[in-house]
């Protein structure tokens, strides 16, 4: 294969994968909810609560002087 053919093949792969990714995420809105308000966030508890409540994922993040639990999930759940 020549250099031009290799470059064209790589470009086509990136283009196809990019289009497939855009199609799979198009139309999905991501929602957020802060849970465990007033409590210090424990990562495992945060993840469990978010999975049970929203079928999403939960992460602790710094919020002022404490850690809060932020759930991220598809809005239609």
UniProtKB/TrEMBL annotation:
Under InterPro entries, the record lists:
DEFL
Secreted is among the record's keywords: yes
* Keywords assigned: Antimicrobial, Disulfide bond, Fungicide, Plant defense, Secreted, Signal
Q: Which residues form the signal peptide?
A: 1-22
- Record keywords: Disulfide bond included? yes
What top-level branch of life does the organism fall under? Eukaryota
What Pfam families would the database entry show?
SLR1-BP
Name of the protein in its database record: Defensin-like protein 119
Corresponding gene? LOC109133027
């Amino acid at each position: 294969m020549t250099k031009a053919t290799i470059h064209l093949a790589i470009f086509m792969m990136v283009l196809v994968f990019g289009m497939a990714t855009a199609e799979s995420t198009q139309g999905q809105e991501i929602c957020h909810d802060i849970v465990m308000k007033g409590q210090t966030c424990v990562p495992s508890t945060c993840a469990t609560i978010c999975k049970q409540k929203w079928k999403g994922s939960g992460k602790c993040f710094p919020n002022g002087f404490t850690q809060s639990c932020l759930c991220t999930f598809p809005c239609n759940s």
